[in-house]
Design goal:
The chain has about 400 residues and is of the alpha+beta class. It has six helices and 16 strands.
Length: about 400
């Protein structure tokens, strides 16, 4: 059994090579072993490289876990210091208000008691005078009465006019109202800012990278409803009633003038912005289409370099036609190989900076993947190549 039949992939003897395996591709078993040994070594090298890469990834993930823990610990420590300072500040303000109220209380009570003592002295004096007048009124001797009357009658005139201003019984209620107003304002501030704090904690990008889905059903979990924005459509693009399909016409459409409208290329952006993890598919027909994503501030006028998807640093585009795929970014072209299909799937993980394009038919085949950092929300876009070309944002179930 020193001969190997490559046609039937089995070891055979010399007689079999002359009989049932006659005309087959045969080599010596030793030669086949040598070639397979080389392939085995290459496979082992690939596996070992994969192990090294994954060990590096494990270390990076461990570093990220440690960084997350350090950041969380610092946030808790800093917030504890800040809240302690706020509590101390509130206690100081509480002490200040209490001291001011007590000081004002002593001042007002002292003033009132002083007036009270003065009035009591005046009452005593007036009672004494009233007694003298009463005694004079009972004098039977007319001469004695007339002799004493001039000196006592002068005392009978009122010597006091009330100057006491009794305040309404509010006193320190104004303080309570002022403190209540501060409390209400502080509650409003805390309610509003606490919502922001909660959102910030929720949105902190500390999650480990999400693996990209594999089967199409995994992508469909992230499918999003996208419609085209008529205000961005080139004047010769006709949108369907639901704004999901577009076709290039040879006549201008009756769109109103709008600053968001593209003027140089047959292209249009989605109405919805894309963040988080999103998936959508584009079905196209005709000479070709560019399936793209772009920032909102991509240029709308001037030439192709400023406006065209993939011709600037504000857009990423997969150029599809019946013969080939090409990926464009910042006017740099990358040839892409893969099965031709009239449907392209796009997967976006905005926070992870991943943008992937797939050929979708019976199965999904990765055409091109981008790993970058997105600094703004993205918008889906299509650029049609010629008159009669169509593109549709598919409804996914």
């Amino acid at each position: 059994m020193k001969i190997f039949c490559r046609t039937d992939q089995q070891c055979i003897c010399y007689l079999c090579s002359m009989d049932e395996h006659k005309g087959h591709d045969t080599v010596s078993a030793a030669a086949e072993r040598t070639e397979r040994q080389r392939e085995l070594e290459v496979s082992r090298q690939n596996i070992q490289q994969g192990i090294q890469d994954r060990e590096k990834d494990v270390k990076l993930l461990q570093q990220e876990v440690e960084a997350i823990s350090r950041s969380a610990d610092k946030a808790v420590e800093d917030s504890e210091k800040i809240f302690t300072e706020l509590i101390r500040l509130m206690e100081e303000r509480h002490s200040d208000v209490e001291q001011q109220v007590r000081w004002q209380q002593e001042t007002e009570v002292s003033r009132v008691k002083e007036l009270q003592e003065k009035l009591e002295q005046e009452i005593t004096e007036l009672k004494r005078k009233d007694a003298e007048l009463e005694e004079l009124s009972h004098t039977e001797d007319h001469n004695q009465f007339l002799h004493n009357y001039p000196s006592l009658s002068a005392l009978s005139e009122s010597t006091h006019s009330s100057s006491i201003n009794i305040r309404p019984l509010s006193y320190f209620e104004d303080v309570t109202a002022a403190v209540s107003e501060v409390r209400d304002k502080l509650q409003d501030v805390l309610r509003e800012t606490w919502t922001n704090v909660s959102l910030t904690v929720t949105d902190v990008d500390v999650l480990l990278p999400n693996p990209e889905p594999k089967p199409r059903a995994g992508f469909l979990k992230y499918s999003c409803e996208i419609t085209l924005d008529p205000n961005t459509a080139h004047i010769e693009l006709l949108l369907s009633e639901g704004n999901r399909e577009v076709i290039v016409m040879k006549k201008q459409q009756s769109y109103p003038s709008h600053s968001d409208r593209f003027t140089s290329c047959f292209q249009v952006l989605s109405r919805e912005s894309l963040t988080g993890r999103c998936y959508w598919e584009v079905e196209w027909s005709g000479r070709g289409v560019d399936v793209a994503v772009a920032y909102k501030n991509i240029s709308r006028v001037w030439g192709l370099d400023e406006c065209g998807f993939g011709c600037n640093d504000k857009s990423w585009s997969l150029d599809c036609d019946s013969n080939s795929y090409k990926f464009w970014y910042n006017s740099v072209k990358t040839l892409v190989s893969g099965p031709q299909s009239s449907r392209v799937g796009v997967y976006l993980d905005h926070s992870a900076g991943i943008l992937s394009f797939y050929s979708v038919s019976g199965t999904m085949t990765l055409l091109h993947r981008v790993q970058t950092t997105f600094t703004q929300p993205l918008y889906a876009g299509v650029l049609l190549h010629d008159y009669g070309d169509t593109a549709e944002l598919c409804k996914l179930k």
